[in-house]
Amino acid sequence: MGKDNVPFHTVIFPSCLIGTGDNWTKLNTISTTEYLNYEKGLKFSKSRGTGVFGLDAQNTKIPSEVWRYQLLINRPETSDSEFDWDDFACKIKGELIDNIGNLCQRSLSFAYSNYAQKTPEFDSSKLTETDTKTLEEVFAKF
């Protein structure tokens, strides 16, 4: 939740709940952030079409996990931060794709040097039901 929503969610809305006389659960803590701006310091605005919103993100065909990663590393915790497409592309390439490539390279190098330069035989009968389900989910994405 952005910092501009704090007065409403901590004073106005709880006051409305208390005013009904019903036994509502009230919040004990609230987590807020600074602003996440769009490119060049523009504020996200649905009405002005500035920013990337749910359907926009979905239409890019970029997996939701990648968007989630971007939001987590760019979360404006102590000061305003900015979403920028060029920065987004650099982070995906530099932090996700390169790291996955590095993991693959290290895994293959390990297997090559520790298994007599051969890939160990794969015995699918040793897979658990969870293993099989996980593999099916991974293969379905490709």
Characterization of this structure:
This protein is mainly α and 142 residues long. The protein is 51% helix and 3% strand. The protein has a two-stranded parallel ribbon with strand order 1-2. The longest helix has 30 residues, at 85-114. The radius of gyration is 23 Å and the shape is elongated.
Quick structural gist:
By secondary structure, the chain is mainly α.
Summary keywords:
142 residues; mainly alpha; 2 strands; two-stranded parallel ribbon
Shape: elongated
Unreliable residue runs: none
Structural class: mainly alpha
Q: Give the % helix.
A: 40-55%
What is the helix tally? Answer: 5
Q: Quick check: average pLDDT?
A: 88
Spatial ordering of strands, largest sheet:
1-2
Largest sheet: 2 strands, parallel
Separation of the first and last Cα atoms: 34 Å
SSE order, one letter for each helix or strand: HEHHEHH
Q: How many distinct beta strands?
A: 2
The fraction of residues assigned to DSSP E strands is under 5%
Integer-rounded radius of gyration: 23 Å
How do the helices and strands line up, and which of them pair or pack?
Blueprint: H1 6-20, E1 36-37, H2 54-59, H3 64-73, E2 81-82, H4 85-114, H5 129-140
Parallel strand pairs: 1-2
